Automatic annotation (TrEMBL):
PROSITE patterns (UniProt xref): K_BOX, MADS_BOX_2
UniProt keyword annotations, A-Z: Coiled coil, DNA-binding, Nucleus, Transcription, Transcription regulation
Pfam entry (one): SRF-TF
Domain MADS-box per the UniProt entry, residue ranges: 1-27
Coiled coil: 88-144
Subcellular location: Nucleus
Organism the protein comes from: Ehrharta erecta
SUPFAM superfamilies assigned to the protein according to its UniProt record, in alphabetical order: SRF-like
Gene Ontology CC terms: nucleus
K-box domain ranges (all copies): 54-144
Principal subcellular localization: nucleus
Highest taxon, organism lineage: Eukaryota
Protein's UniProt name: Fruitful-like MADS-box transcription factor
């Protein structure tokens, strides 16, 4: 076996009369027995640790189960269920616990309400500021629109006045040209009439009288 499996083998045999016979490969019986004891102890320790661990897990399971049952009972008691099993002292303790819980609940509720009110006030102030900014922007736009409209009206008025002045100047020039043509025509007619008039001879005496 030692040769075929390339292992260390030890054999201990007792005869019916109690005589000891032993065999070990390479005559290393003591070392083989030492290794056997060491591994045997390690295996026992492992088994013991596993058993202890299993026992611990069972103990922890029982503890957790008991805690869960206690919590479930307390929850039922707080919900007003299974109160018949409680005595007077336990009922008083439950009442005090409920009152304390109610105080904490009211305190937490008040705190949350104050936070909500504060947040709403902040939002209100923010909306008011936005509203003021929008109103200011609207007023500025209205002023700008009024200024633009006034500018357009002023431009139209200036354009109308310029057109009226141009028309008046044109009419004046036309009237002046017409009057000049009338005057020239009258002068021409007067000259023509003077050329066609025949004056009588004047005597010396009349000329002297006229000169005097």
């Amino acid at each position: 076996i030692s040769v075929l499996c390339d292992t260390e083998v030890a054999a201990i045999v007792f005869s019916p009369k109690g005589k000891l016979y032993e065999y070990a490969t390479d005559s290393r019986m003591d070392k083989i027995l030492e290794r056997y004891e060491r591994y045997s102890y390690a295996e026992k320790a492992l088994i013991s640790a596993e058993s202890e661990s299993e026992g611990n897990w069972c103990h922890e399971y029982r503890k957790l189960k008991a805690k869960i049952e206690t919590i479930q009972k307390c929850h039922k008691h707080l919900m007003g269920e299974d109160l018949d099993s409680l005595n007077l002292k336990e009922l008083q303790q439950l009442e005090q616990q409920l009152e304390s819980s109610l105080k904490h609940i009211r305190s937490r509720k008040s705190h949350l309400m104050m936070e909500s009110i504060s947040e709403l006030q902040k939002k209100e102030r923010s909306l008011q500021e936005e509203n003021k900014a929008l109103q200011k922007e609207l007023v500025e736009r209205q002023k700008h629109a009024v200024r633009q409209q006034q500018q357009v009206q002023w431009d139209q008025t200036q354009q109308a006045q310029a057109q009226a002045q141009a028309q008046a100047q044109a009419q004046t020039q036309a009237q002046t040209s017409s009057s000049s043509s009338f005057v020239m025509r009258d002068q021409q007619q007067l000259q023509a009439a003077q050329q066609n008039i025949c004056y009588p001879p004047v005597s010396m005496g009349e000329a002297a009288a006229a000169a005097a």
